[in-house]
Design brief:
Blueprint (H helix, E strand, L loop, with lengths): L28 H16 L12 H13 L12 E2 L3 E7 L4 H19 L3 E3 L8 E6 L4 H7 L6 H10 L3 E6 L4 E10 H6 L3 H11 L26 H10 L10 H11 L3 H14 L5 H4 L1
Parallel strand pairs: 1-6, 2-3, 2-4, 4-6
Antiparallel strand pairs: 5-6
Length: 290
Amino acid sequence: MFIKKSPKAPVAQLDRVSVSETEGHRFDSCQARHFFIILFLLFLSPSFAEPAHWQTPDYITNSFIEIALNNEYSTAVSRLRKWQQPIYYSIEHRTADKELHQEITELHLAHLSDITGLNIVPADDRKSANLTIIFSTEQHLEHDLKQDFLLNDQQQISHLTRHSVCLANFSTAPDNSISHAIVIIPVDRARAHAKLLSCVVEELTQIMGLPNDSDQVYPSIFNDKSYNDYLSGLDYLLLTLLYNKKMKAGMNQAQVKSRLHKIMQEPSFKQQIEQAEKIVNQQGIFRLLN
């Protein structure tokens, strides 16, 4: 803050002011110091603090458009995509540490369920699953891409094999609702990049209907250049908005912007913005860190 100092004024002799008898006390210099210290502390409290950049409506709106309607591997602008049915998941373990992988996956899926209100439960078997999560190895990544992602473009397979730490994709129905999703995590590669937990968090969150990555959105797991390995307050808000009942699969960008504007005027959502960071830190994989 820049403070302009006034020219020094000549010192004038002040008359002593009588203290009101009604008050019954003197507001002396010691009490004055305490008074101004209290005022200073009050202005430092969160209630007087300006909101962070990611808590402003324009930033939230732009971030939502960037992550929900754009795509990581395409320049096309999509319509809004989201699950409109329960998620039945199956976890396949093609490598060691099954218990750990199972625990962190179930913790994060439960967190996503709490945020979105979507029913996310284990499938009876892989055939009935609409979400498959595969913990594999770097050695078998090319095979997994062919077998599970059903890719046959060798150039694309080679690019993904060389440059991806972990991968996910989802399919949509004609109404833009998400129908199926697959996540592949080569555990040894993820560990080599210190990204095992963040792979689970990011990929499972993206298949909810937030598929893009962007350096313009932070703090967020959707920003590959940031240090966010777990859901941020902004990520929580994006998920909450996506699964707000007023947000419909198939909306175009203009419709999404209009609906977001209305939602963010609601007192309940303004309160969510204020409490987002605190709320998101109380659940999911954060429990392993506390």
